[in-house]
Write a structure and sequence with these properties.
CATH class: Alpha Beta
Oligomer: single chain
Largest sheet: 7 strands, mixed
Structural class: alpha+beta
Shape: globular
Number of helices: 8
Helix content: 25-40%
Number of strands: 18
Number of domains: 1
CATH topology: phage-related protein like fold
Radius of gyration: 23 Å
Length: 358
């Protein structure tokens, strides 16, 4: 019994619902952003957002009751901008595979061989791009790695968000705004000289530097992602104080990330990220000795582009197809991603380097 190419699509909808939901649950950073309601649908080709480094108003002391209250707005905000990255992951299924499929089990094998492997590969490349900026084919998606760039629309390279330098010395342009051109537009940074000597102390310092910026309104840094060497040094330093954090999973989740188990660090969860590879950072970068990103998820936002599921799709790893190759016995299917992310308060986030040093 041969299967129609449309049967594969129907089976996917029944067996693997919500690829976008699977991805956000797959990576803790995206999961936290979505849970806090900071994922939206873009209405245009790019988004602008305000950076407000300090309070917008003024205080007037009342001594006699005759004082004129100073109001208005402190004019110190600037406009930043961000563009969505659009990518299509295409895979082809031979007509012969569909003809030879016989029964439900063969259909399950087809799903595992083609769409499941495709979407997992797509997810992994995006995850690598996020932390290192070198995910194959995903150079238009934003990256945290300040040693490299990304280009979301072919309009020119944009710098990764985290600079591995003291806040006052940072000067790259992120989301169209030069760092330190306004008060507070920089990321926090610390460097470890020896993990046994000052590893946890520098991590704590960076954590408090970042968390105190919005502690009253948004709480503390809640996520850490580090290379395996930095993560292992942290566990070794804790010795028998290790506290494993096992996240809650929903019944029916088909794919749980290797990132999904972490350990407690103050008020945050620290994850070993397999895609942070110190040797792949820029020559002479302090991140060559290890890199830990500290993320205040309340300051991050995601957005997708697209509205019509049957045409351009909603851009959230939407599945599209089948389309027959005109000159081959092949059917093409596609996963479509049109997504961007940005941070509106970098000073609440940090990078720590040197965590690999013993």
């Amino acid at each position: 019994m041969a299967f129609s190419p449309d049967v594969l699509v129907t089976a996917l909808q029944e067996l693997i619902p919500g690829y976008s939901e699977t991805f956000t649950k797959w990576h803790p950073a995206f999961d936290a952003i979505v849970k806090k309601g900071q994922k939206a649908t873009a209405q245009g080709p790019y988004r602008e957002f305000a950076l407000v480094p300090s309070g917008p108003g003024q205080i007037t002391p009342i001594l006699t009751g005759n004082e004129v209250i100073a109001g208005g707005r402190t004019m110190n905000s600037v406009r930043a901008n961000t563009y969505a990255a659009t990518m299509i992951y295409a895979y082809d299924v031979p007509g012969q595979d569909l003809r030879e499929a016989n029964g439900e089990m063969d259909l399950v094998h087809l799903i595992k061989r083609y769409p499941e492997r495709s979407i997992m590969d797509f997810h992994e490349r995006i995850a690598q791009q996020l932390v290192m900026g070198n995910g194959a084919g995903t150079g238009s998606f934003p990256t945290w790695n300040g040693d490299t760039t990304y280009d979301p629309k072919g309009l020119g390279a944009r710098q990764g968000m985290f600079e591995f330098a003291a806040p006052a010395a940072q000067g790259t342009t992120v989301f169209g705004v030069a760092k330190n051109s306004i008060v507070g537009w920089h990321n926090q940074y610390r460097d470890i000289s020896s993990f046994a000597g000052d590893g946890r102390a520098q991590m704590r310092a960076a954590y408090y530097d970042a968390s105190q910026e919005m502690a009253n309104a948004e709480g503390d840094v809640d996520l850490l992602f580090g290379d395996r060497g930095s993560f292992d040094n942290y566990l070794q330093d804790l010795d028998d104080q290790v506290q494993i954090v096992t996240p809650t999973t929903n019944a029916g989740d088909r794919a749980q990330s290797k990132l999904r188990q972490g350990v407690q660090f103050l008020g945050a969860t620290f994850y070993a990220d397999q895609y942070i590879v110190p040797a792949s950072f820029a020559v002479a970068s302090p991140a060559l000795n290890g890199c830990i990103y500290g993320i205040h998820s309340s300051t991050w936002h995601m957005y997708t582009m697209g509205h019509n599921s049957g045409m351009e799709t909603k851009g959230d790893f939407a599945h599209r197809g089948p389309i027959r190759h005109p000159t081959q016995d092949m059917w093409r299917y596609e996963f479509v991603l049109s997504m961007g992310m940005y941070c509106d308060n970098l000073r609440c986030n940090f990078a720590v380097t040197g965590g690999n040093l013993p």
